[in-house]
Amino acid sequence: MKPVLPLPLDIRLMRAGTQLLFVLAALLLLAVLCAWLARHPVFAIRAIVIQGEVSHNNALTLRANVAPRLAGTFFTLDLMRARKAFEAVPWVRQAVVRREFPNRLRVQLQEHHAVAYWGPEGDSRMVNSFGEVFEANVGEVEQESLPRLQGPDGQSALVLEGFEVLRVLFEPLDLALEQLELNGRGSWQARLDTGAVIEIGTGTVPEVQLRVQRFLQTLTPVSGRYGRKPQALEAADLRHKDGYALRLRGVTTLAQDAKKS
Questions:
Q1: How far apart, in whole angstroms, are the C-alpha atoms of residue 28 and residue 244?
Q2: Which one-letter DSSP state was computed for residue 74?
Q3: Which of 42, 191, 196, 197 is most deeply buried (CB count within 10 A of its CB)?
Q4: Is the Cβ–Cβ distance between 92 and 111 less than 8 Å?
Q5: Domains present along the chain, CATH in parentheses
Q6: SS3 123
Q7: What is the pLDDT of residues 171-206, one digit of tens each?
C-alpha cells in the first residue's frame, strides 16, 4: 500500500481560496435577499395600535398626524425617530413604540398632566406633574383654574416643589396660593387668591417653608388686634431677620399716628 502523500501547498491554498469565495458569495446572496425582503411591500407598516392615555389626542388623529412621518418597513423603521414623532404631538409626554410582526406598530402613550401654568400671564407653557415644562393649547386644560409658577429656565421642578409645600400651609387659614415665583436672584414671592403679595426671600424649600410657617402661626393673632381676619392681608415682607412687616386691608397705622401728632 502506497503511503498517502500530503497535497502540495499551492493546491491546498487554491482549495481554501475556492471555499472562501463560495462562503462569501453565499453571504452576499443572503444579504441581498434579506435587504430585498426588508423592503418588500408586504412588510410595509399597515397598522398602528395606540394604547395608553389619549384624553387630549384620539387614536385616529394621532395616526393621521404621525403616519406620514414614519419612513421604512417593519424591518427598516427607525424606532427612535418614530418615538420622537409621537412625542412631538401636543400633550404627549412619552411614547414607547414596538414592532409587531409582520407589519404593525404598537404605541403606548403617556400624556402630560398639567398642574400649573409656567411663565408670565399670557404664556402658553405649562408644568406637568413631574415638574417638566411643556407647550400645548391652554384651552384644552381640564381644570377650571391652575396656579401660575415662574422661575429661571430649568428650575420648574424646584418651583413646583416649593408650591406644593407652601400651598398646604395656607389652607387652614382659608387662603389659597395662586402664584409662586422664584427670581434670578433666588428670592421667592407668593401671591394669594385674595391678591395679597408675600415677599418670602431667599432660601431652600425647607428654609422657605419654615419662614412661612412661622409667619402664618402669628398672622391670626396679629390681624385680630386690628379687628381683622387673615383674609385682610394685603402684603407681607418676611425678609427681615427678626420679624416681618405686613399690611392689612382697612388698617393704616400711619394715618393714626398723624392724627395723634
A1: 81
A2: T
A3: 196
A4: yes
A5: 43-111 (3.10.20.310), 147-260 (3.40.50.11690)
A6: coil
A7: 999 999 999 999 999 999 999 999 999 999 999 999
